[in-house]
Design a protein that fits this description.
This protein is α/β, with parallel strands linked by helices and 372 residues long. It is built from 14 helices and 15 strands. The chain folds into two domains: 257 residues, Alpha-Beta Barrel (TIM Barrel); 69 residues, no CATH class. α2 links the parallel β2 and β3. Bound molecules: iron/sulfur cluster.
Length: 372
């Protein structure tokens, strides 16, 4: 039987760079975007041999801002994926999008091209917070885009949110949660802001930076995190991964494949793959990619120990945890005992999973599963 395959396609373009963002993305003109799409099609065609051993389960266009692509560009990518790998009717096909880049015509074309799940990068429902983040949209523009998304027939929608923003209060965050859940998206991702080196935010908000005090402190960050869990639960969203919440049956199948370590193949600059126990990392330089001199930055066959470690620290991110096997018992017996005594881990039937307390200190708990 063929193995399941998740297909990831990286679109590294944005209207402009947000002040906190260290993703592989940058503004680029139309001509660059078109050349990039052409190279993508070549890269996808070059991977056709995988289709003899794998079948497509999910496709995910991430970025950057994939919704900068025209309907025709999106169509050519998905058409090529379909020709090379096949996209079954039941496959989940997601595109990330940013408010301010969507039109009714584009959304109709995306639907036509086969996208059946749309992820929208909102981050906050407060215009001052959006402005501070350097986002291109307002809450009102998001609402208009969201209406178009529903009008054009998207019935599986994710909204990305971010807490612990500069100047954000507990009430402000609760107000964002309230406004967003009133729209009833099927899925919500809620992360805390991380101050990444090399970004304008790092200059201002790093530890001992000039504006560090404007960030909510650790205690308020923790309160917002607890509010997120409680509020979304009350509104009918089940947390299925540390930062991801969904209505029943709307968990993101593509992201689950990362945590469950089923095979995935990435296309475009910086994209990662895991195929038959080997990790591949695409090179990140746009200019070389556009010239057609595509290469991997690394190819790393994983040994048994690395596979086991990944199974644990990725699988335990999910609320349902991992299935307890003899190998896990023999390699991690002591760790499991220790974390269970600390009430950070618990056994539920044949599975082990982090407790609420364990999730709160997940960095500490998951690091225990690194064997060296
Ligand atoms: S839209 Fe997303 S990927 Fe683009 S710069 Fe902003 S945060 Fe980064």
């Amino acid at each position: 039987m063929k193995k399941k395959l998740g297909i990831y396609i990286h679109i590294p373009f944005c209207v402009r760079k947000c002040a906190y963002c260290d993703f592989l993305s940058a503004p680029a003109g139309e001509e660059t975007r078109q050349r990039y799409v052409e190279r993508l099609l070549e890269e996808i065609r070059g991977a056709g041999n995988l289709s003899s051993t794998h079948r497509t389960a999910t496709v995910f266009l991430g970025g950057g801002t994939p919704s900068l692509l025209t309907g025709a560009q999106m169509d050519s990518i998905l058409e090529t994926v379909d020709q090379v790998f096949g996209i079954p009717a039941e496959a989940e096909v997601t595109a990330e999008s940013n408010p301010g880049t969507l039109t009714e015509e584009k959304l109709r074309a995306y639907r036509q091209a086969g996208i059946n799940r749309l992820s929208m990068g909102l981050q906050s429902a407060d215009n001052r917070e959006l402005q501070a983040l350097g986002r291109i949209h307002t809450w009102e523009q998001f609402q208009e885009n969201y209406e178009l998304v529903r009008k054009t027939g998207f019935s599986n929608v994710n909204i990305d949110l971010m807490s612990a923003l500069p100047g954000q209060t507990r009430e402000g965050w609760l107000s964002t949660l309230k406004k967003v859940t009133a729209l009833e998206p099927e899925h919500i991702s809620a992360y805390s802001l991380i101050i990444e080196e090399g970004t304008p935010f790092y200059e201002k908000y790093r530890v001992d930076g000039p504006c560090e005090k404007e960030l909510p402190g650790e205690e308020l960050d923790r309160i917002m995190y607890e509010d997120t869990k409680a509020y979304l639960h009350k509104k009918g969203y089940e947390r299925y991964e540390i930062s991801n919440y969904a209505k029943a049956g709307y968990e993101c199948r593509h992201n689950l494949s990362y945590w469950e370590r089923t095979d995935y193949k990435g296309f475009g600059i910086g994209a990662a793959s895991l195929v038959d126990g080997v990790r591949y990392q695409n090179a990140t330089v746009l200019e070389s990619y556009l010239k057609g001199t595509f290469r991997y930055e690394s190819v790393e066959p994983l040994n048994e120990q690395e596979i086991l470690e990944e199974t644990m620290f990725l699988g335990l991110r999910k609320m349902e945890g991992v299935r307890l096997t003899d190998r896990i018992r023999s390699n991690y017996g002591d760790v499991i005992r220790e974390l269970t005594e600390e009430r950070l881990l618990e056994q539920r039937g044949e599975r082990i999973c982090l407790t609420d307390r364990g999730i709160d200190v997940s960095n500490y708990a998951l690091a225990k599963f690194l064997l060296d």
